[in-house]
Amino acid sequence: MKDILRNIGIISRALDSISNIEFKELDLAKGQFVYLVRICENPGMIQEKLAEILKIDRTTTARAIKNLEKNGLIIKKTDPNNQKNKLLFPTAEGQAIYPFIIRENEHSNAVALQGLTEEEIDVLVGLLERVKDNISHDWLRVKKGYKREY
Amino acid sequence: MKDILRNIGIISRALDSISNIEFKELDLAKGQFVYLVRICENPGMIQEKLAEILKIDRTTTARAIKNLEKNGLIIKKTDPNNQKNKLLFPTAEGQAIYPFIIRENEHSNAVALQGLTEEEIDVLVGLLERVKDNISHDWLRVKKGYKREY
DNA sequence: TCCTTTTTGTTGCAAATGCAACATAATTTA
DNA sequence: TAAATTATGTTGCATTTGCAACAAAAAGGA
């Protein structure tokens, strides 16, 4: 079977490191922009869900969130219906940064998709969505200590 | 334009963290398997080229290589034609680990591609190849300090 | 040839990353 | 209801990660 892992990894690392370099201007530490974007788009989320959506380790997420809060970009509020949950919201400053992140991401996305037709882009988006769904289950299981057989 | 960055990142992180967990059995530290695979497949490469192909920071690559050498999985040999270059080769132990990495990667790849037809896989592989080529240039430039305008 | 630039490699340091291991609230089960 | 399990969050610690900043060899230019 043909391999997609290698190029997926290469593309991901390339775009990620470009973003991290470019977001130093915004005083965003490595890796933080992904969290901020999601919190801006889904205010009221909890850490655990965010980690699961992004497929980032729970504890790494916890610390990134802590830093975002320390830097005044988000705020945690205890869920009144569930003392255990801490809901995440962007601050005004966080919301102010959001469009800059989007603009950069859209540029990178446009560069990545150069030369592809609209149809090809649609196909690619659809296939990646399916791949993501395929892999999500294993990720959760393996993170929880389940051992895959192969 | 539709976005592919987010799902690419999610898929990449998911597969990567699964691999890193599963390769603890092989005493491979986080991130190391990608280097070892490439060195096994392209013996005699230099660090700089490896970093560029993988799109990983030069200094991070240098340290990963150092660890692989410390753990006896690869060996560096100074290029007789160029004192500055250190050629990378797998040791017997490194070569012994290689098939286990491949087997795991093939399994993850198969899981990722579940439900896709041969044609769809071919299309996906082709499109990802083009995306990778599109982004490579920017990555190199940005890493070298060039500022993108957008 | 000599000087400048590029290529390749390393190290200091600060930070992010992630496995264990824990704490506590909520939920499920007996 | 009480006990066991799950969900969510945190911290300790060892490690990787990556920007600066440097070193030295090679390549290019005048």
Automatic annotation (TrEMBL), chains A, B:
Gene3D superfamilies: Winged helix-like DNA-binding domain superfamily/Winged helix DNA-binding domain. Residues 1-133 form the HTH marR-type domain. InterPro entries: HTH_MarR-typ, Tscrpt_reg_MarR-type_CS, WH-like_DNA-bd_sf, WH_DNA-bd_sf. SUPFAM superfamilies: Winged helix' DNA-binding domain (SSF46785). Keywords: DNA-binding, Transcription, Transcription regulation. Signal peptide: none annotated. One of its GO terms (molecular function) is DNA binding. This is MarR family transcriptional regulator. The lineage of its organism: Bacteria, Bacillati, Bacillota, Bacilli, Bacillales.
